[in-house]
Amino acid sequence: xxxxxxxxxxxxxxxxxxxxxxxxxxxxxxxxxxxxxxxxxxxxxxxxxxxxxxxxxxxxxxxxxxxxxxxxxxxxxxxxxxxxxxxxxxxxxxxxxxxxxxxxxxxxxxxxxxxxxxxxxxxxxxxxxxxxxxxxxxxxxxxxxxxxxxxxxxxxxxxxxxxxxxxxxxxxxxxxxxxxxxxxxxxxxxxxxxxxxxxxxxxxxxxxxxxxxxxxxxxxxxxxxxxxxxxxxxxxxxxxxxxxxxxxxxxxxxxxxxxxxxxxxxxxxxxxxxxxxxxxxxxxxxxxxxxxxxxxxxxxxxxxxxxxxxxxxxxxxxxxxxxxxxxxxxxxxxxxxxxxxxxxxxxxxxxxxxxxxxxxxxxxxxxxxxxxxxxxxxxxxxxxxxxxxxxxxxxxxxxxxxxxxxxxxxxxxxxxxxx
Length: 419
Fold this sequence. Notes:
Blueprint: H1 2-25, H2 34-52, H3 55-79, H4 87-104, H5 107-122, H6 124-133, H7 136-155, H8 177-201, H9 206-217, H10 219-231, H11 237-262, H12 264-291, H13 308-331, H14 334-347, H15 350-362, H16 366-393, H17 395-418
């Protein structure tokens, strides 16, 4: 009996929460009396369903739908408008289900869903403003991501393939189409998140936010864009170098996040070295930014990260790195793994990061040395960014980046030598 009263109390409080928001926002259509009644009804129907069958829950939902339908028709007649919003009515249906959740799945899930409904209703202006600021190209980018993640991914086989059918060792059967595409979805999703944020700030991002967004979307692309600006004198060399350094530091946060998603156990050994490298990268950039923080740095246009061609190229690169690591581990000693990591890091970090994390899931031995491979790739990536920036941005930018990246190179070398 005590548990029943607790369930009814939670339902009542959740109804009051959403009813308070609707009382304030929806002009009295349904408020602090109606919503608690609906959530309590859902709880009572779920309690009765335990004794008399699940049809009572369905009957209760049909009753709520009937009441809402009559109320909607009455509003149409009274307000004499062709179209009326149905957000409140939809929220009432959801809250009936939340009331039932309290009994069926427990209070935690019900509180989570009910609180989410209240927040979603409250942030109506912000959500509408967000939708209006997205252009057609941005919506297409989101839909492309839906195609990559919700249509292509489920169709791919979850099975390892390789070269064993041609007589090579089965240890090289490391290509899993579904896992490979899942890595593509992960990286594209992270880049898309940064791209959408960029669309709201655009060229007004400034040095600090430009570096953060550049690292979230692609630190290599940010290096190319800002180096070209420095070459044409559209941007001061120190500001361009600061953005590149911040983007490189943020890319390490992105690497750590990807490892945590793919191989949580591996992240326990890799997170600390990567955070130390991030600090060694960020501190020199922070010193330069603090000195020149008044200078502007318009952010270049960023490319849509959801292009199918780019996704296919990354998937191919990920598979090649995976095969290279498996071959190096089979035919060579650890030195071969470091060579693969360094060569992969010269182009970009995502493939070697996810390949190493994936191997760590299947081989506990990679938990011990995997972070060393990623640190090696990070250092190689910093070398390639410095060379690329010098080639595109000139000798002054090259000299600044050599000095700014020096603490990170020293720190990485110390980590590899002593730990």
